[in-house]
Amino acid sequence: MSNSTPATDNEKKKSKGKRSQCSPSRVLHIRQIPNGVTGAEVVSLGLPFGKVTNLLMLRGKGQAFLEMASVDAAVSMVNYYTPATPHLHNQPVYIQYSNYKELRTDNQHNQAIFSKFGFVLKIVMFHKNNQFQALLQYGDAMHAYYAKMSLDGHCIYTGCCTLRIDFSKLTNLTVKYNNDKSRDFTRIDLPFGDGQRTMEASLSTPFATQNTICPYTGPPGFAPALGFPQGAGPSVLPVPGALGPFTVTTSAAPGHMTIPGIPGNSVLLVSNLNPEAITPYGLFILFGVYGDVHRVKIMFKKRGIALVQMADATQAQLAINYLNGQRLYGRVMHATLSKYQTIQLPREGQEDKGLTKDYSNSPLHRFKNPCSKNFQNIFPPSATLHLSNIPPSVTVDDLKNLFTSKGSTVKGFKFFQKDCKMALIQLGSVEEAVHALIELHNHDFGENQHLRVSFSKSSI
């Protein structure tokens, strides 16, 4: 790779009105980034739309270049953020296509692939079961979270060394020697040693404030807080100085846990809602696409504002990433973390008019089962919906008529060739699809057959 930096003067000139003429590229140019914004925060803008394969921060210029894994992912990102400008540190940032088709950053892509997400504290490599294995520790668990979300499934080299990244039960790595097998980047005084080193886990709490990337067997591409089953599978992880991939195998901590360092609040403040159309059930279904909703409260005196309590903080953050700025019943919805830690149920006799609902034990939770395929099929709101659990007796016309009866415009439809219980339906707009999902998820076809609806990454 060459040691060249994209010519930002070119980008700046084109951004003054002519930039929109650029053809779609998987490299996106992001402008007006406030001081203090980290690479992880920039990467988080792209994660809902697919894997982020590279990042170049130009801090002095308040700009960055973000490379997505595919042009389709970049197009989805631009289409989403064009009508709903994203904010970093409460300031708007602007995203457009770059005229660069890929980022070339002088082996940074290979040698410092994890450093762009935050400061790497320690790395330990070892050999086990005829495979190289590694553990990598960040100073902040949020950085570990962003690294996993962005790099899991990414190739170190073109077409090979695919990464499989997950979270470890270990809370701290103890490094005794700085050499080619282990390194503590906070301790330059450590001896070179003989290459032997030890790892110690401080397990007095489920997780400490620092986190170690290594395996968990939950489904790929989803925040690990949604369930850590016992017994982890292999994880491929690159570190500086590695000769190739190395696999880590440990067991993940059992139980339903959150990643430390991610803001602990699981309650969302949702505002600018249409008070004439919004219901607690509607918010439960929509936010339930991105996590298990426990409670919903629409404010009694301000019906355009609601609180939504997710199962944990990671789900809450995921819902913000996907739903903040989404149009719902004619208004652009805003979602952010609330100052409240929980939603209180109304006291007995307190006037509420059904505006507060408890869904803690709802059978409609999508993520109760840690092995559910729902973890693998979480996408931004889109005009195309994925339908499943369709009874054999239901025809194409039946489904088209069902969606039309709810005010949708059906643009396309097709059953899956290998599974007639599933289909894709393309509606007139993303907003239409959001409304249809709220109306028709769990639709009863009779004989205990209920339709399942989710957003699709595909189009017809």
Explain the overall architecture:
The longest helix has 11 residues, at 71-81. A hairpin with a 2-residue loop joins β18 and β19. Helix content is 18%, strand content 24%. α2 packs across α5 (141-151). It has 460 residues and is an alpha+beta fold.
Features:
460 residues, alpha+beta, Alpha-Beta Plaits, 4 domains, five-stranded antiparallel β-sheet, four-stranded antiparallel β-sheet, 9 helices, 24% strand, globular, disordered N terminus
What's a concise summary of this model?
With 460 residues, the chain is α+β, with helices and mostly antiparallel strands. The protein has helices at residues 8-15, 39-46, 71-81, 108-111, 141-151, 280-287, 313-323, 396-405, 430-440; strands spanning 27-31, 52-58, 63-68, 87-88, 91-92, 94-97, 120-128, 131-138, 155-157, 160-162, 182-184, 211-213, 235-236, 247-248, 267-271, 293-298, 306-310, 327-328, 331-332, 334-337, 356-358, 384-388, 410-415, 423-427, 444-446, 449-450, 452-455.
Shape: globular
Counting DSSP H or I runs of 4 or more residues, the number of helices is 9
CATH superfamily of the largest domain: RRM (RNA recognition motif) domain
The name of the CATH architecture of the largest domain is 2-Layer Sandwich
Beta-strand proportion: 15-25%
How is this fold's topology laid out?
Elements: H1 8-15, E1 27-31, H2 39-46, E2 52-58, E3 63-68, H3 71-81, E4 87-88, E5 91-92, E6 94-97, H4 108-111, E7 120-128, E8 131-138, H5 141-151, E9 155-157, E10 160-162, E11 182-184, E12 211-213, E13 235-236, E14 247-248, E15 267-271, H6 280-287, E16 293-298, E17 306-310, H7 313-323, E18 327-328, E19 331-332, E20 334-337, E21 356-358, E22 384-388, H8 396-405, E23 410-415, E24 423-427, H9 430-440, E25 444-446, E26 449-450, E27 452-455
Antiparallel strand pairs: 1-3, 1-6, 2-3, 4-5, 7-8, 7-11, 8-12, 9-10, 13-14, 15-17, 15-20, 16-17, 16-21, 18-19, 22-24, 22-27, 23-24, 25-26
Helix pairs in contact: 2-5, 6-9
